[in-house]
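agent> step 3/5: call structure_predict on target 'OmpA family protein' (Corallococcus exercitus).
agent> reason: downstream docking stage needs a structural representation; sequence fetched in step 2, passing through unchanged.
tool.input:
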Amino acid sequence: MNRTHLFLLLSVIGLTGCARRAANPSTADAHTPAPSVSDRGNAAKPAPDDDAEQALAALSATPIYFPLDSSLLPPEATDELARIAQALRQRGLAKVTVAGHTCELGTTEYNIALGQRRAASVRAYLVNLGVEPGRISVISYGEERPADVNAPEKNRRAEFSFRLAEQAHAGDL
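tool.output (status=ok):
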């Protein structure tokens, strides 16, 4: 295994742990003052964390499908990516992970690299539309997570998962 493959493999392993970590809303709760007795009866006013979670819940995206052996964004993907970019720009606490996938054709190493290129092309497009690069992470699953084993064209895709950004603590600055 050459150095490039080793670096790619280690990068994928490192990113896999990051992609699966769920947002921890309890960290924000630890620094939020408890509501007063008069606030507890006011059900109409949501807590700040509720607003953030509702904003995150409103984010959704359909997969971007790619042609065989390609990481070039298909023209039909631009409308969906523009919608995602606008939604992310409107929600400053939201982050996204773009996961690249492939069909079963090709070697494992090739498919991991192709999935990485697919996710990276989606990331680059979102950055070009004004989303801060630090809010977009990428990962490749290659052929390991097929959407449909009987329809390879559905496996050549990039998928999105959204989460809340970890907030810096005032004492950590």
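agent> step 4/5: record observation. Residues 50-164 form a domain with the 60s Ribosomal Protein L30; Chain: A; fold (CATH 3.30.1330.60).
agent> proceeding.
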